[in-house]
Structures are given as C-alpha cells and as structure tokens.
TrEMBL record:
Belongs to the dTDP-4-dehydrorhamnose reductase family. The gene is rfbD. It comes from the Bacteria. This is dTDP-4-dehydrorhamnose reductase. It catalyses: dTDP-beta-L-rhamnose + NADP(+) = dTDP-4-dehydro-beta-L-rhamnose + NADPH + H(+). Residues 1-289 form the RmlD-like substrate binding domain. Binds 1 Mg(2+) ion per monomer. Pathway: Carbohydrate biosynthesis; dTDP-L-rhamnose biosynthesis. Gene3D superfamilies: NAD(P)-binding Rossmann-like Domain (3.40.50.720), UDP-galactose 4-epimerase, domain 1 (3.90.25.10). Its cofactor is Mg(2+). Keywords: NADP, Oxidoreductase. It comes from Pseudomonas asuensis. Catalyzes the reduction of dTDP-6-deoxy-L-lyxo-4-hexulose to yield dTDP-L-rhamnose. InterPro entries: dTDP_dehydrorham_reduct (IPR005913), NAD(P)-bd_dom_sf (IPR036291), RmlD-like-bd (IPR029903).
Length: 306
C-alpha cells in the first residue's frame, strides 16, 4: 500500500507498480488521511498489506514556518498514526524523511548516525516523525533523501526548464551543496527494500538509512547540467546564461542547509542499492517530459479538422 500517491515519489511508485505482478493500491489525500486513525485502520483491515510505503508529507519548507500546525499534522501525527496501526496489523512501514533533519553545517557526507539539528519547522517536524515511527513500529525502514526531482509535480528541475523558456539569464544559488535524487530511483529503492524486508525474517534490515545522489553538486551546477541536457534533447531552444549567486543574495523565510550531502553507504551494504545516478535521472525525466509533450501535441492536432 502506498500513501502519498499524488506526490513525486508516489507517482513514480505507481508507474512501477503498474508494470509489476504485485497486489497493490495507492492513495492520495482524497482517499486516505494518514493522520486519521479510523481511515488508516479501515484501509489496513480491508487490504491487509504486508508493507506500507509512506510517501506522504508536507514539503513546503517556507510555508511550514507560517503554518507549523499543518506541517506537524502531516509530518508527525500522520507517520505516528501509520506506524501505530502498522504495528497492530503486522505490517512493515517504509517512510521517507529528509536531509533537513541536519543543521547543514558539516563538511563531510552525513551518515544516519550523525547528530541531528534541524533549523526550521519542516526539518523539525520530519525529525519528530522519524522518532514516532521508531517508537511505534520496530519493523520500519526510514529513508532520508535530498533534492528530489522528477518529471512529476513541482520541483527544481521543472522550475529551471520553465524559466529557461522565459529568460535569457538565470541566477541560481551556488554556495549550497547537496546530492540530487531522482524520485524514480527512490521508488526503485523502496520497492527493492519492500521485497527484501517482506521476504526476510532478519530484523537487522530494519532501521534508518540515507539515499542520495552519487555526486555532490551545487544548485547552480545542477541547473547548468539540467539545461545543457535539455538543449541537447531539444526540449529548450536556447541555453540561458546561469550565474551563481550566494544564499544571502536569495533570502527565504526558512534557512536552507549549506551542506546536504548524504552518505548512502549503509543502504548499499545492507540492501545492495547504489546511490541515485542523478545525471541519468535528469535524462530520464526529460525523456518522459518530451514523451508527454509529444502525446499532448498529437492529441491537440487530432482535434483539428479541415
């Protein structure tokens, strides 16, 4: 069972589950309120999943500063409710968390055992959600990830593509470093983990892990790669100039971590899952977007008659 089926990772999970032979179902907020104990219990009792993947979250980092109660309901109460009921129904839970649980002041990649220290509401609520899951359901796998992008939803990659079609020059933060992570690779990792924990009695597999991109990059470097591939693919017709700026030049309500590089070694050693090749993820996303654009174009042309 997938909660958060309308998000980036949720949609990528559905793409893959449609091609699998697994019994599955996915829910967005309209059909499953993860913070509503009665709703969750009814779904678990009816479908009886062996694994629940929670891809639902409040992810508006800046808005969270203005509406902490809304963020807490999705990021704390929701995971707590899911974990409690998964434990009661004999179901493992896989949960997605974030690099924002860290202060972002490190200079070497973060491991799952490193001290946490969120600086904003979003990170604090996600961290508390982790604690609630760990307390309520021993059969859990929590995956922290960072800089998620894909062909679905709203994300940095799609923003850069839109701005490239509107402007000749872009200014992008160049003093924050992280590991971009393709949502499709997160979905692949989650399904691999679900298969392994579902087939094993080895409780050592449960726990806290990191899954990030294979090579650190700044937002500016990430943007330049996206646009270069987009130009090469013919997705954009011109390459805008991308200038690096500092975080101070682009103030936001919530503080962004200056260093969000995640060490995925433990996930690789336990589950055999490689870090996300984010360059390939960009190419996959652009191919998917171009395919969707071609379908849309054909649909429009088919509605035109002489």
């Amino acid at each position: 069972m997938v909660a958060g089926g309308n998000g980036q990772v949720g949609k990528c999970l559905i793409d893959r589950l449609k091609r699998s032979d697994l019994a599955w179902e996915a829910h967005g907020r309209a059909t499953l309120d993860i913070a509503d104990e009665r709703s969750v219990a009814e779904h678990l009792q009816r479908f009886k999943p062996s694994v629940l993947i929670n891809a639902a979250a409040y992810t508006s980092v800046d808005k969270a500063e203005m509406e902490p109660d809304v963020a807490a309901r999705a990021n704390i109460k929701g995971p707590a409710t899911l974990a409690k009921l998964c434990q009661e129904h004999g179901c493992s839970i896989l949960h997605i968390s974030t690099d924002y649980v860290f202060s972002g002041d490190a200079s070497v990649p973060y491991t799952p055992d490193d001290p946490v220290g969120p600086s904003g509401v979003y990170g604090a609520t996600k961290l508390e959600g982790e604690y609630r899951i760990q307390d309520a359901c021993p059969n859990h796998v929590i995956i922290r990830t960072a800089w998620v992008f894909s062909e679905h939803g709203n994300n940095f990659m799609k923003t850069m593509l839109r701005l490239a079609s509107e402007r000749d020059k872009l200014q992008v933060v160049d003093d924050q470093q992280g590991t971009p992570t393709y949502a499709g690779h997160i979905a692949d990792a989650l399904l691999s983990i679900a298969h392994q924990v579902g087939a094993a009695d080895d409780s050592d597999l449960f726990g806290l892990y990191h899954f990030g991109g294979n090579n650190p990059v700044t937002w500016c470097g990430f943007a330049r790669y996206i646009l270069e591939v987009a130009l090469d693919r013919g997705f954009i017709s011109k390459l805008p100039r991308v200038n690096g700026i500092t975080t101070a030049d682009f103030p936001t309500p919530a503080r962004r971590p200056s260093y969000s590089v995640l060490d995925s070694t433990l996930l690789k050693s336990r589950f055999g899952i490689d870090p996300s090749n984010w360059q390939a993820g960009v190419q996959n996303s652009l191919d998917a977007l171009m395919g969707a654009k071609a379908v849309h174009s054909n649909e429009n042309s088919s509605q035109v008659t002489a």
